[in-house]
Write a structure and sequence with these properties.
10 helices; alpha/beta; 16% strand; binds 1,3-dihydroxyacetonephosphate; globular; TIM Barrel
Length: 251
């Protein structure tokens, strides 16, 4: 049985007091009996704040939004996997479309970051997804397939069962225009089949999350699809009430 996961990607938002208030509100009201794994991904500088508040708390993990492929050295502005581990992170988002579009993260770099994460004891949440133009040109499967193939080649087919995949259509991110459950399920099925081609025995165990304008009012319908195993949440992860409602919908 694969895990259900709801991960919050806070992106570049929040002060220490915002982060404290959000974590407190989420941890007070979270249903810890549910089988959903909750993951919070704050900006790097807020990880110590989140880590301190979550010490000893069951049912909530946290992670970074990116990592460098090197462990240490002259890489100004970067954060490494051992640094994330040092602060208790268990997850890291890799290949978010904003990193791909704004910071030049290529398929090969995303693959190398995924491998570095696994080698360091972090679970990479590997983001894939097509732009609006690519969807309109009917190239969604070739784009997502190539993004996925690079990561599978990078980590090796045996270890691809240790990753989490997040399908995030670029046109649905921050736009209020989510993919419909049918649209999302179709790509999730494609992703699962592609993973099965690499590792038939374990593909069914790999959580595939949907991201892109997930809100309390559309989460249940999305999570009801057979290959949608939870969500990677942006804007709604900054509201404790909305995020908790989405966690509840995944349970
Ligand atoms: P929104 O939920 O704000 O659309 O963002 C999704 C996302 O990019 C999560 O990584």
């Amino acid at each position: 049985m694969r895990r259900r996961i709801v991960a919050g990607n806070w992106k570049m938002n929040g002060t220490q007091s915002d982060a404290s208030a959000l974590v407190r509100a989420i941890s007070v009201d979270l249903n810890r009996d549910s089988a959903v794994q909750v993951v919070l991904c704050p900006p790097f500088i807020l990880i110590p704040t989140v880590a301190t508040l979550l010490t000893g708390q069951q049912g909530i993990e946290y992670g970074g939004q990116n990592l460098d492929v090197h462990d240490h050295g002259a890489y100004t502005g970067e954060i490494s996997a051992p640094m994330l581990r040092d602060f208790g992170c268990r997850y890291v988002i890799v290949g978010h479309s904003e990193r791909r579009a704004l910071y030049g993260d290529t398929d090969d770099l995303v693959a190398a970051k995924s491998r570095k994460a696994l080698d360091s004891g972090l679970t990479p949440i590997v983001c894939v997804g097509e732009s609006l133009r690519q969807r309109e040109q009917n190239t969604t499967e070739s784009v997502v397939g190539a993004q996925l193939d690079a990561v599978v080649a990078g980590v090796g087919s045996a270890r691809c069962a240790e990753i989490v995949v997040a399908y995030e259509p670029v046109w649905a991110i921050g736009t209020g225009r989510s993919a419909t459950p049918v649209q999302a399920q179709s790509v999730h099925r494609f992703i699962r089949d592609r993973l099965a081609a690499a590792n038939d025995a374990r593909a069914a165990d790999i959580p595939i999350l949907y991201g892109g304008s997930v809100k309390p009012d559309n989460a249940s319908a999305l999570f009801a699809e057979p290959d949608i195993d939870g969500g990677l949440i942006g804007g709604a992860a900054l509201s404790a009430a909305d995020f908790l409602a989405i966690c509840h919908a995944a349970a």
